[in-house]
Automatic annotation (TrEMBL), chain A:
SUPFAM superfamilies: Sec1/munc18-like (SM) proteins. Belongs to the STXBP/unc-18/SEC1 family. One of its GO terms (biological process) is vesicle-mediated transport. It is a peripheral membrane protein. GO terms for cellular component: cytoplasmic vesicle; endomembrane system. Pfam families: Sec1. The keyword Protein transport applies. Keywords: Membrane, Protein transport, Transport. This is Vacuolar protein sorting-associated protein 45. Its main location: membrane.
UniProtKB/TrEMBL annotation, chain B:
PROSITE patterns: ZF_FYVE, ZINC_FINGER_C2H2_1. SUPFAM superfamilies: FYVE/PHD zinc finger. This is FYVE-type domain-containing protein. GO terms for molecular function: zinc ion binding. It comes from Adineta ricciae (Rotifer). The keyword NAD does not apply.
Length: 596, 399
């Protein structure tokens, strides 16, 4: 069974666009967002091969025209873009235009464009649903750095953009219908789910999802607030680690801060589709990467040595033949060696091993007094960065929110005694409980709430941990496992339009319970379970590379899951996201300690 | 509570108490400590026993790794037409929605309406600017006016007290005039003056008289500038316009028209110029590259086949054939290389682009640079796979 691949889906559209424009000198006209979309799945050198020689933005004002060139316009259907397109057509810079919108476009807009096309340049106007950024085959994002607004409400424009992104994801994977399940406790998730369902129904004439259809997609919409700990943890797999410590934006890594960096390595592109070493090591942990890179270096040195011994014509010939690969290899090697070198330098100076072990123990074990001691130690340690102390304090606050001896205030006081925490971090600590604390979240993040979870935790402890830095398992994985086994409770994660469901032999149902409330029977059907053909996850508020790693592992074992979110967070961007949701108004006081 | 018979339950269910344990290890542990009588009642004993059990379970699992590797596959449904389409697309193609039909309809309606207006004006224009002897010229104003009024109905000017384009009132200093093409009343300031030569160009863009107009804009092979719209007319006063061509001592005939007629005619002019644009030099050269490339594609495989057969001692082909093809191949390489070099030089010098128009220059240079990169890449790919031409000795040795 072919696996879902969002990168292939986007590439399909772009290939089609370029083919349709035919044999001529082509120019690609994009807007800011579609430029990211294209650059993530296509390298410039590859596009150049297809005779696309110009890359422009629609919003840059008119220049001299180059008629006899073909323009391939790939735009989001926003008002600004339509206006810009109308202006462009009235004074065309190109000879012919092939217009592709990434989402549904209204009839009036088509009319305005048609009326502006005085020179009859437009040959084609179509909708190609590539409205999201594809990062890995199972991972997508909408590049919205901050989703929340004050009081955790939806901004209209962002809601619209998100719904559009999800619809286009479904259509690009050739899914017209889906069961949409959302997190009941999150208002934002609910609104998004309903919006998505309405859009699908309205645009494509599909009534309630045809439950008997064998390929049944499940869309799961959850809120980041349900699991605020995953973005707070330090990571040890290659992709995740680079993002946490240095930062990856649109597959680009800015290395200008690395001491002794050469000019050409100041900004590098890390794209698994074009970089074999990276593709193999995306999910390897730090130890494995070090071994692999050593191996790569040895391989490279061998090749280099053989290159320098050119003695005969045949040698020269084989040199020339293998030169391009050699050049590419040397580029890759220097890039990865630099990055891994920088990562290990940072691990050393920030004492990350010790820190990360503490983080993981804090989240996965239950030794309260021990952990408080450890944190106090680390606060005193100068090598540890302020932001890492903030991480620890937030993790502690979330973990021991209702603990009898909650020491969050004490820890914070100690920190302020020996460090100058920026205002932003102090506000963040105050905001994190409001964001992801017990009051909001339903999930049992620390396995303390029911006997099953406690036992599970117990077993894990007994087994002994093979990697103390990877103990944590993000909530999303547990949710998905529950969903697959039909155990994701309907009252916590209902589906949109679950009232009208019909039974068929494709299901297996779990127990039906009838509850009586005040004499009236309320039929409570627990998860009418349909075997999904794939699962598409969207997290309002962003995801992390750690979660992507877990989904990747599940997919390797036969799952068909696509994960995505509004943004891919690291600690820094997560702070901004949380603060956008609103800081509770506790002025000088720290937060009240909740007592059971 | 025990479930009813109708329910089907799956998973690791304890046979005794029917509680669901999610995994194998948990089931074992649960079963051991709940349902089996243990001799050791201490917690420690229980723990160590549990540990042993788990280890043994893990060992079991370690020997059958394959079973673990696809544990999630069971939870997903398989598409029914899977086997038949195995050979087909590897990845599903996304949906596409086309709006071409509606677009063309909208555009056509607009165009039809516009061309109706334009044609109407052009017909009148033709009659008004005819150079036949019988038609009175501006040298004979009275006759001229009568002639013009015969073609177009002039509006009764007593009804109009304000100029429709600038809304200023008519009076002693501002006199009423009539647009020759639609008969409306305009003041002198708002009048546009259309030279007869331009009018003739608009009516018939392909005749040689239009050579007059071409002088100022096209000069062999240049880029068109549609954003510095050359105006078809000049405003009040017949000097200082782009297209004011005073041919010798002959003064041009002008036609007074209003702004709206001017806009319609301007559009017509722009459309004509748009269609007639000449190809930029870059593109002409690029076409040469494409020609050379397609020739390479044709010859190269033949060449490789011939060389192969020569080196393996076959006598199907002669060395001369290989040599001939090799010469052609190298000449293609030469063409591609030199043309692309020339293009990249063009990109640096940016001819025909305004000095101040830096954005256009950047764009033009980027285009040329990219074409050069494309050519280099093409050459690299081909030259790697081109085999060296065998010499006579090689051929002899092979036979």
């Amino acid at each position: 069974m072919t696996n879902l691949n969002v990168i292939e889906a986007t590439r399909f559209y772009i290939n089609r666009m370029i083919e349709d424009a035919g044999q001529s000198v082509k120019g690609l006209v994009m807007d800011k967002e579609t430029a990211s979309i294209v650059s993530m799945v296509y390298a410039q050198s590859e596009i150049l091969q297809k005779e696309v020689f110009l890359f422009e933005r629609i919003d840059v004002a008119g220049q001299k025209s180059l008629k006899h060139l073909t323009a391939i316009c790939f735009l989001r259907p926003t008002e600004d873009n339509i206006q810009a397109l109308v202006r462009e057509l009235q004074e065309p810079k190109y000879g012919s235009y092939f217009i592709y919108f990434t989402n549904f476009v209204e009839l009036n807009d088509i009319k305005s464009i048609a009326e502006a096309d005085e020179y009859e340049c437009v040959r084609v106007i179509q909708e190609f649903y590539a409205d999201y950024v594809a990062i890995n085959p199972h991972l997508y994002s909408l590049n919205i750095p901050i989703t929340y607004e004050n009081n955790f409400l939806w901004n209209d424009q962002l809601l619209r953009r998100t719904a559009q992104g999800l619809v286009s994801l479904l259509l690009s994977l050739r899914k017209k219908s889906a069961t949409i399940r959302y997190q009941q406790s999150s208002n934002m998730a609910k609104i998004l789910a309903e919006r998505l369902s309405n859009t699908l129904r309205r645009q494509l004439d599909f009534a309630s999802s045809n439950v008997n259809a064998p390929d049944h997609t499940v869309v799961l919409i959850v809120d980041r607030r349900e699991d605020a700990i995953t973005p707070l943890l330090n990571q040890w797999t290659y992709q995740a680690m680079v993002h946490e410590l240095i930062g990856i934006k649109n597959n680009r890594v800015n290395l200008s801060q690395v001491p002794g960096i050469t000019k050409e390595l100041e900004e590098v592109v890390m794209n698994a589709e074009y970089d074999e070493f990276y593709a193999d090591n995306l999910y390897s942990n730090f130890g494995e990467i070090a071994t692999n890179i050593k191996r790569l270096m040895e391989h490279f040195q061998e090749k280099h040595k053989s290159q320098s011994k050119i003695e005969s014509i045949t040698d020269m010939k084989s040199f020339v033949e293998s030169y391009p690969q050699f050049k590419k290899l040397s580029g890759t090697v220097s890039k990865h060696v630099t990055i891994v070198g920088e990562l290990s330098r940072l691990v050393g100076i920030y004492n990350l091993l010790d820190l990360s072990e503490t983080e993981q123990n804090l989240v996965c074990q239950s030794n309260h007094s021990e952990i408080v001691q450890k944190i106090k130690q680390l606060i005193q340690n100068d090598k540890i960065r302020d932001e890492d102390i903030v991480r620890l304090i937030c993790l502690y606050a979330l973990r021991y929110e209702h603990h009898g001896n909650n020491e969050t205030n004490a820890l914070l006081r100690e920190t302020l005694k020996c460090r100058q925490l920026s205002e932003k971090y102090i506000q963040f600590i105050q905001a994190i409980l409001n964001y992801g604390g017990r009051k909001f979240r339903q999930a049992d993040l620390f396995n303390t709430q029911n006997s099953m979870a406690i036992t599970r935790q117990f077993i894990r402890g007994l087994k002994g941990v093979d990697n103390v830095y990877a103990q944590h398992i993000p909530l999303i994985r547990d949710l998905l496992e529950q969903l697959l086994r039909g155990k994701l409770k309907d009252n916590l994660y209902p589906s949109v339009g679950s009232k009208d469901r019909i039974q068929s032999n494709n299901y297996y149902t779990t127990s039906q319970q009838t509850q009586f409330q005040q004499g009236q029977p309320i039929k409570y059907r627990s998860s009418l379970f349909i075997i999904p053909s794939e699962i598409i996850v969207y997290v309002v508020g962003g995801i992390t590379y750690e979660e992507s790693y877990h989904i990747h592992m599940m997919n390797k074992q036969g799952a068909r899951i696509v994960l995505g979110g509004s943004y891919i967070h690291n600690f820094a961007s997560f702070v901004d996201e949380v603060l956008a949701g609103g800081v509770p108004s506790t002025s000088n006081e720290f937060f009240a300690v909740k007592r059971r | 509570m025990l479930p009813t018979i109708n329910d089907v339950r799956e998973g690791f269910i304890c046979p005794q108490c029917h509680l669901d344990m999610s995994t194998m290890e948990m089931l074992h542990v649960h079963f051991q400590d709940v349902h089996m009588k243990q001799s050791s009642s201490t917690v420690k004993g229980l723990l160590s026993f549990a540990k042993q059990k788990i280890k043994s379970v893990q060992d079991n699992f370690a020997t059958i790794p394959n079973e673990q590797s696809n544990i999630y596959a069971q939870y997903f449904s398989v598409e029914p037409h899977d086997s038949s389409t195995k050979q087909q697309q590897h990845s599903p193609n996304g949906y596409i929605c086309s709006h071409n039909e509606e677009f063309k309809k909208f555009r056509k309606t607009k165009h039809d309406q516009m061309s109706l207006e334009t044609t109407c004006l052009l017909l009148r224009l033709e009659r008004l600017t005819s150079i036949e002897e019988s038609v009175p010229k501006s040298s004979n104003p009275k006759e001229r006016r009568k002639y013009e009024q015969r073609i177009v109905d002039w509006l009764d000017d007593s009804k109009v007290s304000l100029c429709p384009s600038c809304a200023k009132s008519f009076g002693l200093s501002r006199r009423k005039h009539h647009c020759r093409l639609d008969g409306f009343v305009i003041c002198n300031e708002c009048s546009q003056f259309l030279p007869f030569s331009m009018a003739r160009y608009l009516i018939e863009p392909n005749t040689s008289s239009s050579g007059l107009l071409n002088k100022s804009t096209t000069n062999g092979v240049t880029l068109q500038r549609t954003n510095s719209l050359t105006s078809v007319t000049s405003t009040a006063g017949v000097d200082g316009s782009n297209l004011n061509l005073k041919e010798g001592g002959n003064h041009e005939e002008y036609l007074r028209i209003c702004r709206s007629c001017q806009q319609i005619l301007q559009r017509r002019y722009d459309q004509i110029r748009f269609k007639k644009t000449d190809k930029d030099e870059v593109l002409i050269r690029y076409e040469k590259i494409i020609e050379a490339q397609s020739e390479l594609e044709k010859i190269h495989p033949t060449y490789s086949a011939i060389v192969e057969s020569l080196l393996t001692g076959e006598t199907k082909h002669q060395l001369i054939d290989a040599q001939r093809l090799y010469r052609r191949i190298t000449s293609c390489y030469e063409t591609i290389d030199s043309t692309s070099k020339y293009i990249s030089k063009l990109g640096e010098s940016c001819p025909n682009i305004d000095e101040n128009d830096t954005s256009s220059q950047i764009r033009y240079s980027a285009l040329c640079r990219n074409i050069r990169m494309y050519a280099i890449h093409l050459l690299q790919n081909y030259s790697i796979s081109t085999r060296r031409l065998p010499s006579d000795d090689d051929v002899q040795r092979a036979r």
